[in-house]
Every structure is written in structure tokens, then in C-alpha cells.
Specification:
heterodimer; A: 235 residues; alpha/beta; six-stranded mixed β-sheet; B: 425 residues; nine-stranded mixed β-sheet; two-stranded antiparallel sheet; rod-shaped
Chain lengths: 235, 425
């Protein structure tokens, strides 16, 4: 379903106070099949989040391609890419990225700004019920615990029934109980046939996935340059 | 969820920023509305004042006209119509006109309804030796004033002298010791004294007035007269030329003389006073027009300055709003919201800010201009000058203008790199 080929991302940065081209990703190839649960692991600064943003059509690569069901995502117009993202992709961030002035219910419904959903409200309430947040539907994010906030973010990501969930350290800021609840949610999504590309430091979490892709720093490149060193199927 | 819900929630969340933006628009719209309203109020006050002055001037002039008419009437006839071939030197030397014209001229003049003269009186006069009393007198034959069908039938200036009756000038009846009812003989004919004139200090004091028909017979001038006396109407600026023109059209073989009287002098003074009043009014109008132009110029500079300053202020607030919402923009883009939707989101917020500012600014400008006028106690009432066109214009243009000044920050938000925005800390 998702096929990343020779992905390279360079951007203008600085080294020793001088302008320099920094390579964030160098010739990385990853693929995620429909319904597959894949983890990406690697040290800090090796480009895991960059990979995720590029996979979600938010960061155009310097070289290489990102295809979804055979369609080059970056060959689409920005409008078509946004529509594809709204229909097919769900994002879950480490920092939750909830909109602070919207209630829990409105945050879950935020994707309908991009793509109206006939049963949007009913589905949002159903998701909130599933994640045990019904009693919080009218609260603003600041009134929630971090675990609750991440569950709201998950509910938002699942509103449009995406085919691929892109998760960036979804439990990075959570306590064990909250993290466990999130893993359960992700597992449930996967059991329902959804594909997940998960970026995580947590070896335990990676162990729950079907396959782990490891990114490592290139020997002669300072942080944050990285290169693919390989991938292995763990299950 | 609708875009409007998101916008309203955001406005409530960032109340201070929104209110500051509304205040900027309020000041801009309010200054324009206040400037326009103040000028309108100034114009209305000027019109009212000018109308009041005009009315006062008309009243004064009308009073002066009446006054003049009364004075003129009190002093007697002031227009003398003579045969055209009458030599004026002879007239002044002899005290009467030697040339004659038909008596019917008087009827013709009156029938023509000349607006510039009143009280038409045909006379036949001649200086003669009163042999019976051995003195020189002025004999005047009069049939009395000819009644006019369409003019004021007030008391005539000179009454009809009945046949067989004589009216005596002061010098005559005093020196001859004659009284009303006494008999006297003139040119062989007997008359009864019907009235004695008071002293006038002119040739009237040696004048005898008898019936015109009897005078024509005594002097053998049947159907003829040598002058028509009239009272001019003070209704034209250039009276004499108007009267001359009017009479020449009816009686082409006559000439017209105006007596120099005190009334004329007084009328002249009043005319000049009226002219001065008009000049003063014109000067005041000019002065107010100058003041209006000065105010207009001041507003023409101040209002755009305020609008520009407030536009910059609103644009900076919009930029600040965008800067504070970078991550939110990134999240929305990650959720599939398109860049033109982001643009519309920020422009709609600015338009709402403009609408609120326009409503408040209109109210502030309009009420402010009224309060400013009411301060001096001369302004028109609050509801008198509600400008519907300006109201609609302000409400339509201000939101568009607010959106326009916010366009650059909104465009920046729409073009924001979502990946960069999501990495924002």
C-alpha cells in the first residue's frame, strides 16, 4: 500500500556557524502493506519523524518517491494530496497536537473541516465512548490528562476510517497505564484491517508490531543525518 | 464541524487579540463616519442658519417696503407725467406745464394696470392772475383720483372737488380771511369754499383746487389736461427706469419726472441697508463655506491617516494571530485541510472583526458627531441625520477592507509549510 523508495531529504542548515546542506534522510526505502503494522526505530535525530511526515505527504522529498497504492503522492496537486490525506491517512503525534480552544468532541470532528462526513457527529461520539471519553466530550484539552489527550488525538485520527495510521512516538509522553491504553487502541485498529507505520523508541512497543525498520546514523555524517541500514521482519 | 464554529471558538479563546482588532477597525470606521457626519451636520446647521437669516432679511425688507409706502403716501404724489414736448425749464420757471395732453390718458394708464404706479390723478393747472382779488395764483382742476378696479381701494390721496366748490391753499385763505362756506368769484364765476388746506411751505399755499371739468371750461381746455400725478410703487431696484419703461409702452408721447423727496432718500437708505444686510449674509455664507472647506481638508488628511494607522495595526494583529497559530495550521494541514481553506479561515476571521468594528465604529462615529454638536446646543436631533447609504457602505466596505489588510498574514498562513509548522515548539 505505502511504498517509499530511495527517499532522501536535504535541507539548508548550518554546521560550525556556516550555512550547510544537511541530509536528514539518505536513500531510505520502506514499504507497508495493507493491514500491516510496521515500526521504525532508530536513535534520536536519525530522521524518523521526517520519514513519517514525508510518508504523510507533508514533506516533499529531495529525491526518491512516496507511493500509495501505486500513486506517487508528490505527483498529485497540493489540493489532491490534501484530499488524499483527509481520506486515507491518520496522524498521531507525540505532542498530541490538539487544538486548544476546541472541545474534545470538536477536536475529534476537526477532520470534517477538510472532508465532511455524513455521520461525523455520531461517529465522533462513538469513538469517544470507545476510548472512555464520553464524559469529557465538552472539555477543552487543557482540562484532560495526557493519556486522555492522546486518546482524543487517536479518536481524531480514526474519524475518517483511514487506511494508514502514521504514529510518531504516540506514548512518548504517557505513563504506563495510558501507554497501554493507546497500544490497545492501535492493536484494535490493526485487527480491524488498518495499516500502521509507527515511529518509536520503545523496544517493547516495536516488539508488538509485525516488522521493524531500523534507521541509523551514517558513519561519516554528523547528527541528524541518517541512512537506512536495513529492515527486518520480527514476526 | 463548520469553519464558523472554529472561528468563533478561536475568537472566544483569543478575546483580547480579537477585541484589539475590533478596536482598530472601530477607530478607522468611526473616524470616517464621524468626519462625514460632522460635515453633514455642519452643512445642515449652515442651511438652517442661512434660511433663518434669509427669512429675517425678508421680514426686514418687507417692513421697510411698508414703511416706505406709508412715508411716500404720506408725502403725496411723487411721479409727474407730462406731455413729451413739455420743456422742463419752462415747467420749473412757470410752476405749471404749458403743453397739453388728452384727459383720456389717465384712464388708459389705469386700464393698462401698470404695476409700478398707484393713485393716478389727472390735473389741469395754470398760473393766472386772480383779477377779483388782485394776486397771482395757481389754479388746479382736479376730478379726484381715478378709482382702480384691481388695486387697493384705500383712501385716495386727493379727494374729488365737487363742481362749484373750491379748496384754498393756506396763504390764500389766511391772507384773504376766507373760511369754509364763504363765496368767492374766480374768472367771473362764483365758487363756495369747501376746504382750507394747512400750511405746506410750497406752491400749494397759493393754489386753488376746483373741479377738473369747470377748470377746463374756465381755461377753455375741454377734454385736456397738462399733467398726471401718480404715486410710485417701491417694488423695483431701479424704480424710475421701470416706471418710465412701463408708461412709455402705454403713453409713448409723455415723459416722466420723479420728485426728489425725503421718502425717496429714506427708501434709498433702506435699499442700501438691505443691500448691506445681503452683503453681510453673503459674507457669512462665504465665511462658513471657507470654514467648511477647512474642516473638509482637515478630515481629508486626518481620516486617511487614522485609517492607515489602524490598517497597519490590524495587519500586525493578524500577523500576530498567524504566528500564534502555526502549530494549529500544521495540524489542520495534516488533517487534510487545504491551503485555500486556511486562507479563507483567516480572511473570514478578519471580515468578522471588520463587521464588528464597522458596527461599533458607525455607532461611535455617528453618536460622537451628534454629541459633539449637542455640546453647543445647536445640533440637529439624533435621528435627523441617519445616513442609510453611509451605513450600508461602511458595513459592506469595512469587512472587505479588514480582510484586505489581513491578506498578507493570511496568505502566509496558507503557504505555511505544514512539516515546519508541526515541528514548531
Amino acid at each position: 500500500m505505502l511504498d517509499i523508495r530511495g527517499l532522501t531529504k536535504r535541507y539548508q542548515g548550518s554546521a560550525d556557524g556556516r550555512p550547510a546542506v544537511v541530509t536528514a534522510l539518505d536513500d531510505v526505502s520502506v514499504s507497508v502493506a495493507a493491514g500491516e503494522y510496521v515500526a521504525v526505530q532508530g536513535p534520536s535525530g536519525c530522521g524518523k519523524s521526517t520519514l513519517l511526515l514525508a510518508a504523510g505527504g507533508l514533506l516533499a522529498p529531495s529525491a526518491g518517491s512516496v507511493s500509495f497504492n501505486g500513486q506517487d503522492v508528490y505527483a498529485l496537486t497540493p489540493e489532491a494530496r490534501a484530499r488524499w490525506r483527509a481520506e486515507s491517512i491518520g496522524f498521531v503525534f507525540q505532542q498530541f497536537q490538539l487544538i486548544p480552544y476546541l472541545s474534545v468532541a470538536d477536536n475529534v470532528l476537526a477532520p470534517t473541516l477538510a472532508q465532511p462526513l455524513a455521520d461525523g457527529r455520531a461517529r465522533a461520539l462513538a469513538l469517544l465512548q470507545r476510548f472512555g471519553l464520553t464524559h469529557r466530550h465538552d472539555h477543552v484539552p487543557a482540562a484532560l490528562s495526557t493519556g486522555e489527550q492522546q486518546r482524543v488525538a487517536l479518536a481524531r485520527a480514526l474519524l475518517h476510517r483511514p487506511r494508514l495510521l502514521l504514529c510518531d512516538e504516540p506514548t512518548g509522553n504517557l505513563d504506563d497505564d495510558s501507554a497501554r491504553a493507546v497500544w490497545e487502541c492501535l492493536a484494535e485498529f490493526h485487527r480491524g484491517g488498518g495499516a500502521i507505520l509507527l515511529v518509536t523508541h520503545d523496544a517493547g512497543a516495536a516488539a508488538k508490531t509485525q516488522r521493524v525498520v531500523r534507521l541509523a546514523r551514517k558513519e561519516d555524517q554528523p547528527c541528524p543525518s541518517a541512512q537506512r541500514v536495513g529492515s527486518r521482519a520480527v514476526r | 464541524m463548520s469553519v464558523w464554529r472554529l472561528i468563533l471558538r478561536e475568537i472566544l479563546y483569543r478575546k483580547a487579540s480579537f477585541l484589539l482588532g475590533v478596536a482598530a477597525v472601530l477607530v478607522a470606521a468611526g473616524s470616517v463616519v464621524a468626519a462625514v457626519s460632522l460635515l453633514r451636520r455642519y452643512d445642515l446647521r449652515t442651511e438652517q442658519r442661512a434660511a433663518a437669516q434669509e427669512a429675517e432679511l425678508r421680514r426686514t425688507l418687507a417692513a421697510a417696503e411698508d414703511d416706505y409706502r406709508e412715508i411716500t403716501k404720506g408725502l403725496g404724489f411723487n411721479i409727474l407725467i407730462l406731455p413729451k414736448d413739455q420743456n422742463l425749464s419752462d415747467l420749473y420757471a412757470e410752476d405749471f406745464a404749458s403743453k397739453l395732453m388728452p384727459e383720456a390718458y389717465a384712464e388708459r394708464l389705469l386700464q393698462a394696470r401698470v404695476a409700478s404706479i398707484n393713485h393716478v390723478l389727472p390735473i389741469l393747472q395754470q398760473k393766472l392772475k386772480w383779477a377779483e382779488r388782485e394776486r397771482t395764483v395757481l389754479l388746479v382742476g382736479t376730478r379726484g383720483e381715478i378709482p382702480s378696479a384691481d388695486k387697493d381701494a384705500s383712501k385716495p390721496l386727493l379727494d374729488l372737488v365737487a363742481p362749484g366748490a373750491v379748496v384754498l391753499g393756506n396763504e390764500l385763505h389766511r391772507s384773504l380771511k376766507l373760511s369754509v362756506g364763504d363765496k368767492l368769484t374766480l374768472l367771473g364765476r362764483e365758487f363756495t369754499v369747501s376746504r382750507l388746506q394747512p400750511e405746506r411751505g410750497n406752491k400749494d399755499d397759493i393754489t386753488l383746487w376746483i373741479n377738473l371739468g369747470e377748470a377746463q371750461k374756465l381755461l377753455q381746455r375741454d377734454g385736456q389736461i397738462n399733467a398726471i400725478l401718480a404715486l410710485e410703487c417701491n417694488c423695483a431696484a431701479d424704480r424710475l427706469s421701470t416706471i418710465r419703461g412701463d408708461i412709455a409702452a402705454i403713453l409713448p408721447d409723455t415723459q416722466v419726472i420723479e420728485f426728489g423727496t425725503q421718502a425717496l432718500a429714506r427708501a434709498e437708505v433702506r435699499s442700501r441697508a438691505a443691500a448691506h444686510a445681503r452683503d453681510a449674509m453673503q459674507r457669512e455664507n462665504d465665511s462658513r463655506a471657507r470654514q467648511r472647506a477647512e474642516r473638509s481638508s482637515l478630515f481629508a488628511v486626518l481620516a486617511p491617516l487614522l485609517v492607515t494607522a489602524c490598517s497597519i495595526w490590524a495587519a500586525l494583529l493578524a500577523a500576530d494571530n498567524v504566528r500564534g497559530r502555526v502549530r494549529e495550521i500544521g495540524v489542520l494541514r495534516a488533517l487534510g485541510v487545504r491551503s485555500r481553506q486556511i486562507l479563507a479561515l483567516f480572511l473570514a476571521r478578519a471580515a468578522l472583526m471588520g463587521l464588528a468594528g464597522a458596527l461599533l465604529g458607525f455607532a461611535a462615529g455617528w453618536l460622537g458627531s451628534w454629541a459633539w454638536d449637542a455640546r453647543s446646543g445647536v445640533g440637529p436631533p439624533l435621528g435627523a441625520l441617519f445616513p442609510p447609504v453611509l451605513f450600508v457602505l461602511v458595513l459592506a466596505v469595512t469587512p472587505l477592507f479588514a480582510a484586505l489588510v489581513s491578506f498578507v498574514p493570511a496568505q502566509f498562513a496558507a503557504q505555511q509549510d505544514p512539516a515546519e509548522a508541526l515541528r514548531e515548539r
